[in-house]
Amino acid sequence: MRAERLATLLTLAAVLLFLIGPFVVIVMAGLSSGNNLAFPPPGLSLKWVYKVFTIDSFRASFGVSMFLAIFGTLAALILGVPAAYALSRYKVPGAEAVRLIVSSPIIVPGIIVGLALLRYFVVPLQLKVSLALFCAHTALIIPYAVRVVSASLQNLRSDIEEAAVLLGASRVGAFFRVILPNIRGGVLSAFILGFVTSFNQVPVSLFLSGPGIHTLPVDMLGYMETTYDPSIAALSALLAFLSIGIVMIAERFLGFTRYV
User: What is the pTM of this model?
Assistant: First the structure.
């Protein structure tokens, strides 16, 4: 029994090292006192963390990423919540096919989605880069909104809504007064998941970015092509801490893992 327990603990430690090791390397490289991106660092310093906030392109692309993440997720929820409600409460013709289509952006690799949107949606319609990015990020987040909200609706008894209708509420009134307040945890979880997914999106943003408008991950890739200093590692560590912090807060107050 001791040997089996030791083997299990060693396996767990190896898995954790495999998952956390690259993150530790990035953090240490971002705190390097040297002038080149290297591990182990010759010393520790915060100068590259401070430099991240002085780079104009990072500040501009951060604003673009925040705009897309916030408003793209809100647009996805406006479309995804009613879709999840319809799929959960009504017998929609071809419901399985609809679910498959809605889930397709999750199943299909992002680089294929980006190329498809560029070739068959953006180019023929001559959409502006900003609008194309917004539409693409919204489309990518809708599947997450539908899946998370659907999971929340499955835990809500349908007879509660029927009771509200029998007491005189309309279907729309029952949705806003009964259903929506009871699934707000799922909606907020969908928003957080969509926000993190959109903010960290690379393949689609890479295809749809244009002159003067690009997201932070794409800007980071371009920065590495010309400059190889530890500031890119420092920025990567800051973004990782931001994502981890958001997820931990969501888990603490919403029970994030119940919906994902």
Answer: 0.80
Closest-CA residue to 80 (of 177, 167, 154, 186):
186
The Cα–Cα gap between 96 and 146 comes to: 13
The partner residues of 32 in beta bridges, in order of sequence, read 44
DSSP letter for 256, please. G
- Say which DSSP state 38 is in: -
Domains and CATH numbers, the chain: 55-258 (1.10.3720.10)
pLDDT averages per 10-residue partition of the chain, 260 residues:
77 84 81 76 80 84 87 89 81 72 71 71 56 80 84 76 75 78 82 86 77 80 79 84 79 61
153, 88 contact by CB (below 8 A): yes
